Amino acid sequence: MTDDTGAFFATHFAHLPLMTILRGFDAARTVQLAERAWDVGIRLVEVPIQSPAALDALAATVEAGRARGLPVGAGTVTSAAHVRQAADAGAVFTVAPGFDPAVAGSSLTAGLPHLPGVATASEVQRVLAFGLDWLKMFPASDLGPDWLRSMHGPFPQARFVATGGVHLDTARTYLDTGAAGVALGSALADPAQLERVRELAGSLTPSTTSEVSE
After folding, report:
1. Is 199 among the catalytic positions?
2. Beta strands in 139-197 (DSSP E)
């Protein structure tokens, strides 16, 4: 099976190889943090959907993103029901912690690019055979940068987004090791780290980033 997932993620990560994951916040706070991400040039915002409150946060963030012409996706999508909920909330892509062909197929059928999680060579091979070449390296902090080096040998076509335990001190290490993107979680919610987020984004795309406001 093939889709436009590759083009979707390639386009947005080419602008800035960062994504933010906003988990566990209410709708207003999620929108606020998404706006911080967009203000520094991060195009991809993921809102994990694990509760009715999370779906409300996703829908509110989708609306805010739509006003800027920016995509918002649903994370922790582990069932066909989640795919339907994500689509109903207006998400334009889905992310999963692992790879389930049924979930991936449901997402693609709904027109939503899908980013499945992988942690082994066998999983990478299965996802590539399915027709997806953008994969979520998860959990990145457990796998480590050396895992990326090992996977690039047999799977040069794979594009990995390092996710899970990646923070401002390690993000560039993953990028320098060959990650096509990295996902940041709590940094945008911590006022003490906001300037560092801006500096990281600015160092990656110095001509397109701007100040983060609290």
Report:
1. no
2. 159-162, 181-184
